[in-house]
Amino acid sequence: VKTCGSNLQGPGGTFTSPNFPFQYDSNAQCVWVITAINTNKVIQINFEEFDLEIGYDTLTIGDGGEVGDPKTVLQVLTGSFVPDLIVSMSNQMWLHLQTDESVGSIGFKVNYKEIEKESCGDPGTPLYGIREGDGFSNRDVLRFECQFGFELIGEKSIICQENNQWSANIPICIFPCLSNFTAPMGTVLSPDYPEGYGNNLNCIWTIISDPGSRIHLSFNDFDLESQFDFLAVKDGDSPDSPIIGTFTGAEVPSHLTSNGHILRLEFQADHSMSGRGFNITYNTFGHNECPDPGVPINARRFGDNFQLGSSISVICEEGFIKTQGTETITCMLLDGKVMWSGPIPKCGAPCGGHFSSPSGVILSPGWPGYYKDSLNCEWVIEAEPGHSIKITFERFQTELNYDVLEVHDGPNLLSPLLGSYNGTQVPQFLFSSSNFIYLLFTTDNSRSNNGFKIHYESVTVNTYSCLDPGIPVHGRRYGHDFSIGSTVSFSCDPGYRLSHEEPLLCEKNHWWSHPLPTCD
Ligand SMILES: [Ca+2]
Ligand SMILES: [Ca+2]
Ligand SMILES: [Ca+2]
């Protein structure tokens, strides 16, 4: 018999079955006891993953600290189905894993935390669902609906019972694989988007608008297994209708317009490998007008009239540039069809650039989405001679050790390095000593993250002082006189060490005697 487990304390944490995410041991007996630090609180757990050999390996969960006492048992779990949340009645909860002599599985990963007593905890809101009610105390009720076009599977309402357990799990909202749409606008999603659509699918969606009108599709996201899974769009309601387009792979198609008032979307997935799937919005429009272009993301649109002869303009938000189309498009007659004079403009965050405005924003490419792999982006910021440049980090998150932003004090890669950053560790701000700053963002060939949002501004150096030197990440600064001859010093939060101890002296040339130390 293998014994395992531990005593855990609030306010919260995570633990797993032995060897997770690899197979747990046979003949294991593991015991965990969780105790809230605040004795007036109770313990809530929720499983991120759970899979035990069904019927033979069990996890018994009980209230209090008397492990194994049958009077205190809350749940006995096996297989792979678990409640959203399990909440104790007292400030303690015990868990007992028992496995038999053969056949294992991955086990479980569970999060715990202390919550108010006489409550069931926040069970969340289903993806593509809407929740009514926000009380989680005994006798509180939560009601659920799904967004338009989705089907609700499960209970429409759940109540927080006296035993601190919800009467049921929250429902799920699924997008049906076969349906007709008659609303003038809506969304079509691949099954389980964006989690992966699975295998062996043959989904058919038909969009039917009023006779005389047409249908416009915008692809917000698209990722199918290339050459094996396909989306076909047909101009009509039968399998033999003419094909407007067939799509596969990860390239997001540009928008599509029907010729008639019915569109048929056929989605086929083969027996293996899945992608993220797709997210398509559609709208319908009349005979003498162009399709509603929507408001392109990262942009503002001017003009609300889509009739023949009207124009709209699209201006990118700060930090973005036009990646498709021109600023203005006009609804016109081309080859006997009413259509926009060019593609609907799109705005995106560019990989690199040269900036010389007094202030602005630099975004990682793809912002606000994840950046791509294998990037090599260079930005140069130029201020007027005699000025310096201050850059401020608003957001920074890259793959630790692999996706790196270098900041150089000058116009190019050969200029002295101000800092090299990855993960989430960045200073609040940095200054150049000349009127140039150079940034280089390189990413490796796997794993991405949110990237960064950086503000830059041109600043003048005061005749009698140095610029604010900043504060290290995980550190603090002593002294806020930055005039020539004064010093500032630094310390780090517990657990971090200062890279160098000497205080910074503001020298006659307006520069600090040393670079800002770091806390490592
Ligand atoms: Ca077993
Ligand atoms: Ca496939
Ligand atoms: Ca990477």
Characterise the protein shown here.
This protein has 520 residues and is mostly beta strands. The chain has six domains: 2-116, Jelly Rolls; 129-174, Ribbon (Complement Module, domain 1), CATH 2.10.70; 178-285, Spermadhesin, CUB domain (Jelly Rolls, Sandwich); 299-348, Complement Module, domain 1 (Ribbon); 353-460, Jelly Rolls, CATH 2.60.120.290; 464-520, Complement Module, domain 1 (Ribbon), CATH 2.10.70. It is built from no helices and 41 strands. The strands form eleven sheets. A five-stranded mixed sheet has the order 1-3-8-5-6, with no helix packed on it. It has a five-stranded mixed sheet with strand order 15-17-22-19-20, with no helix packed on it. Strands 30-32-37-34-35 form a five-stranded mixed sheet, with no helix packed on it. It is flat. It starts with a strand and ends in a 15-residue tail after the last strand. The model has no long low-confidence stretch (mean pLDDT 92). One calcium ion binds at residues 225, 228-229, 269-270, 272-274.
